[in-house]
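Technical annex B. To support the medicinal chemistry partners, we prepared a structural model of the target in complex with fe (ii) ion, based solely on the information shown next.
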Amino acid sequence: MAKTYVLGIESTAHTFGVGIVSGEGEILANVRRIYKPSHGGIHPREASQFLASKAPEALAEAFKTAGIRPADIAAVAFAQGPGLGPCLRTGATVARSVALTLGKPLYPVNHGVAHIEIGKLLTGCSDPVVLYVAGGNTLITTLAEKRYRILGETLDIAAGNCLDAFGISAGIGPMPSPEEYARRGRELFDMPYRVKGMDVSFSGLLTAAENLLSQGKPLEDVCLSLTETVYSMLTEITERAMAMTGKDSALLVGGLARSMRLREMLETMCVDRGGKLYVVPEEFAGDNGAMIAWLGYLHYRCGRPVDVSESYVKPRMRIDEVEVCWS
Ligand code: FE2
């Protein structure tokens, strides 16, 4: 029987990603073009222009790597949100034109749910508590009654954003630099530790770290204090979620899943509880097209494609807006 292939396009922030997966869960292509701002954070318009300029070559490379023709795909998926409006619209425009040109169904999908589902696919875990941490998102969730319910989330900036912003203002650049400097730190300073139930807040912590640095404290020690506090807070809410739901496994997804120290803390907590930690493989931790393609396939399996005229982007989309029809 012929295989089902789905094309996925990611463009929520700095990455233009094109993935091609099969219904059996094989990842045939995962092409990325990443926008790196010359200074500071992401400028949405500049980023979207970069993404648009890389789209044709990334698409061509994905089909070449996968060894299939465009006509062989069964469906096209794109990241509908959350993300930066201009970047989302770029990916959506590319996806719509591919779907219309090839006459294939179109599936707008949630970027956060895609991070979770690629993690489940590649680690084989079935019903975990999920910690999703990245530059733009921080939340703890689990599947209950057909939705990823948000048990807790950041009340202000994302954990990854906190670490990236500190690294940039300290002149060492974004992650993983702050964690690398932290390895040479010796002293832990008192830091604001803000956990409210399963919600967290990082903006005061960022300010405190910047203040310590401006007072002349050693950069390595400030990095150590900052990263240890951020990761402790994330570990605490993950443990609370496991205790509340009675689930014995945790899945770590998103760009911050690359952090060895965060993994170590979560691992220790899980083992102490007699549970197990699963971590998405590094290549699929950051934003990528394969995760969009895989979630596109899951939606495809449920049917219900979306007409091009209704395939809006949703910059503030939340993961609990999605009905998990495939599970
Ligand atoms: Fe992401």
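Notes passed to the chemistry partners:
The chain has a mean pLDDT of 96.
The longest helix spans residues 219-245.
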